[in-house]
């Protein structure tokens, strides 16, 4: 594979969000990075500082835009906002999610969990995959022969990876390899994805309790 045929699209998850109420914030506005999240974003800028990045894309949500800010500043590039890489739709948005004191204590919502393979409580995995792969293809074309960075969210990044690796969508959310401010890198030979790599530039900043906690709206 020659350098002119090799393009890398990096899918970065945003940093930690200030969310004292512990709700599934999903696509809700005004959820910004915490102080720790901003440190994570700076780690992202350090990670890409010497990379051959020529194209930047971010979800329209504040936490993604704020994660991209130091990267854009470091690289001296403008950022394209792409709604196709936004967080997945979720019917539990704005609510806490748990059995003891969250939404799951109400039997009236249990029907939403009837089909985890779709999933029945939110945007279908197939729909997430379609929009993410379209956005990745456009980023690949814009950065042809170089590298692009897309700042998105946990579930869209994970579904994109499952699709590229031809794995099934049904999975345990607690086992997603997509930590805060992580980078999932897809290498293309021409238009064909040929490799996936995973890095955690801010891995040492993530508290143990966050590593163990599944956050559905991230």
Automatic annotation (TrEMBL):
MF GO annotations: hydrolase activity
EC number(s) stated in the UniProt entry for this protein: 3.1.3.-
Record keywords, A-Z: Hydrolase
UniProt key word Hydrolase: yes
Enzyme class (EC, first level): hydrolase
Pfam family, one: His_Phos_1
Source domain of life: Bacteria
Matching InterPro entries: His_Pase_superF_clade-1, His_PPase_superfam, PGM_Phosphatase
Chain coiled-coil ranges: none
Protein name: Histidine phosphatase family protein
Lineage, broadest ranks: Bacteria, Bacillati, Actinomycetota, Actinomycetes, Propionibacteriales
């Amino acid at each position: 594979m020659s350098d002119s045929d090799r393009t890398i699209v990096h899918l970065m998850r945003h940093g930690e969000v200030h969310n004292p109420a512990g709700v599934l914030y999903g696509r809700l506005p005004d959820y910004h990075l915490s102080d720790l999240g901003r440190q994570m974003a700076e780690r992202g800028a350090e990670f890409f500082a010497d990379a051959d990045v020529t194209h930047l894309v971010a979800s329209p949500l504040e936490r993604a835009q704020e994660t991209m800010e130091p990267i854009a500043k470091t690289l001296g590039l403008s950022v394209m906002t792409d709604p196709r890489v936004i967080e997945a739709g979720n019917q539990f948005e704005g609510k806490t999610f748990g059995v003891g004191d969250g939404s799951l204590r109400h039997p009236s919502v249990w029907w939403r969990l009837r089909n985890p393979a779709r999933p029945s409580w939110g945007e279908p995995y197939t729909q997430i995959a379609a929009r993410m792969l379209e956005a990745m293809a456009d980023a690949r074309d814009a950065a042809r022969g170089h590298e692009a960075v897309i700042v998105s969210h946990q579930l869209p990044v994970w579904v994109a990876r499952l699709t590229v690796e031809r794995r099934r969508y049904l999975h345990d959310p607690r086992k997603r390899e997509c930590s805060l401010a992580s980078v999932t890198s897809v290498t293309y030979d021409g238009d064909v994805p040929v490799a996936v790599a995973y890095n955690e530039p801010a891995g040492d900043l993530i508290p143990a309790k966050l590593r163990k906690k599944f956050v559905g709206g991230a």
